Amino acid sequence: VQLQASGGGLVQAGGSLRLSCAASGNIVSVDAMGWYRQAPGKQREMVAIITSSGGTSYGGRTSYADSMKGRFTIFRDNAKNTVYLQMNNLKPEDTGVYYCFGNFGGNVYWGQGTLVTVSS
Length: 120
What we know:
Elements (H helix, E strand, L loop, with lengths): L1 E5 L2 E4 L4 E8 L7 E7 L6 E7 L10 E3 L7 E6 L4 E6 L8 E9 L2 E4 L3 E6 L1
Parallel strand pairs: 2-11
Antiparallel strand pairs: 1-3, 3-8, 4-5, 4-9, 5-6, 7-8, 9-10, 9-11
């Protein structure tokens, strides 16, 4: 299984970006997909996770880190095995490398990371 993340870039504070992460390969089942990030000099931290939708095409149970609630939205397209992260009202402290992950049948895979830089 491979995960390809995209959508990072440079944005001013208060701006928006949408990250996407497409999974490909031998995917039997999708238990969860989501995003972590790593800021310069800091440990990797959870951003948002979306778990199995229970039958719907785009939904699922979501969880967010406290600092992202109300600003970030995670959603998925099951047909494309793709997860998205809509980031609004970005702050300089959101700067970092964003990594997507997927839990496929109990096996966890990571994407290569995409850099988000928020200028003040």
